[in-house]
Design brief:
single chain, about 240 residues, mainly alpha, three-stranded antiparallel β-sheet, two-stranded antiparallel ribbon, about 5% strand
Length: about 240
Amino acid sequence: MIHPDRMDLVRTRELLARDMGMPMGSFRNKKPHTHEDFPAPISSADARVLLWDGEQTAAYLAGEPVPELPAPGGAQDLLDRQEAAAELGVTPRTWDGYKSDPRIAPHTVLVCGVEHWPRGVINTFRDARPGKKGATGRPKGKANALPRGQLRDKVAVLLAAEPAVTISDVCASLGVAPATAQRTLAQLRGERITQLMEEEPGLSFTEAADRLGYPAAVRRGARDVVETAGKGAEERS
């Protein structure tokens, strides 16, 4: 997490090496940032690019007490990919599908080339998602929130970002009924499995589903789609 007033203090490995007067090759070999008393990164533990607070690292290098960081929790705190996903209770790959949403994308902030988002924007998105309470989808008797064509495209984005995306995830993100989410996911997974099996003759349904990352629990509907496509091909031939 990065405090918004401390963006200019952020340090990458390259900047740390410069601050230490050390060639980058030596920095990679010696890994001074891994020393037990070195200030902890302000990026998430699994972040692809580690970041540090420059005031903390400068104090450490000067042999001075390392200052505390501002307490987290503010609406303007900047969260990286893993932190944003954790804030919503989803996987980072699911967040990759969410971040292009027009309610989020304009608020993206690059810090040393790494995407971050304000906590308040993430929470507003979470609170505004239709069906977020229990992920039950749309209220009974209410039409789906998206036209069918748009729905398919948006579900495809979520599926591409997270092959194991659930019906509840789709309901929560798009505000559709569970039956609609289930049907669309099955259709898209079935089509992708069929395409892969056509591209690689001899590949079984299970092998194709494994290759695409679809969990066993979600394959039943996809199998029906694949079998229907196979029957249609036989009839046409």
